Amino acid sequence: MAIECHSCFEWLLPAINRYREAWSDVELDIASGFHFAPLPALARGDLDLVITADPVADQSLAYLPLFSYEAQLALPRDHRLADRPWVRPEDLAAESLICYPVDRDRLDIFKSFLEPAGVEPARVRHAELTTMMIQLVASGRGLVCLPNWALHEYLQREYVVVKSLGEEGVWPTLYAAVREDQQRAPFIRGFVEVAKAVCFENLVGIVTAELDAPPLPDVHRQGTSTDSSQP
Predict the structure, then answer these.
(1) Domain regions of the chain by residue span
(2) Which one of 1.25.40.80, 3.40.50.970, 3.10.180.10, 3.40.190.10 gives the CATH number of domain 2-68+172-202?
(3) Could you tell me the pTM of the whole model?
(4) How far apart are the first and last CA of the chain?
């Protein structure tokens, strides 16, 4: 499997541990999704599952929703926008944004907030670690957009203040991408079930992405399988 979400390791490792306990005969391996294109690799059969918030149109792939989250902006506590109920795209035209080193079309703040409004920030700098990003924000070196659940700890510690992007906020959905012909495979559905359970037990601020969808079929472990696929 591969992961396209820098912040997701917080919940992915506990989910993998729980999955391994229930599906001990399934081999697990994680490939970095930050410096190669994992969705084409998934379509080719090089991977079995990709954690992504950026689905692409491909009839050979299926996207199983895990949860939705709010993409929020972290600001220094004394920032000029700290008293606003939310921020507008034009508010960020004079600001420095701190981002993960990935393409802009994979960053919520660009693809869903700034680019539709035709706004470009004054500066963009990159950092790979979430903790470093928060330190830079707290020190007044820029602003960062992260999932609400990733910001919760730092908000509770009063390192930063957090604002919604627009009055309604920006709410992406995180998916488990799989090949269409494997989406009902028990070892795939088992992973999705475990990942969702771990996330809703531990992450603050996430919501279900399947309010009107039928429940997943029962994929609780029954007996022993010899399937050695790698999700």
Answers:
(1) 2-68+172-202, 71-165
(2) 3.40.190.10
(3) 0.85
(4) 5
- The sign of the dihedral angle between the CA atoms of 152, 129, 195, 40 is positive
- CA distance linking residue 40 with residue 61, whole number of Å: 10
Domain covering 71-165, topology? D-Maltodextrin-Binding Protein; domain 2 (3.40.190)
Residue 181, CA distances (Å) to 5, 52, 60, 178, 208 in order? 24, 19, 8, 8, 25
pLDDT in tens, 92-118: 999 999 999 988 988 999 999 999 999
Q: How far apart are CA 124 and CA 101, in angstroms?
A: 10
Q: Which of 129, 111, 113, 10 is nearest to 54 (CA)?
A: 111
Q: Are 72 and 25 in contact (CB under 8 A)?
A: no
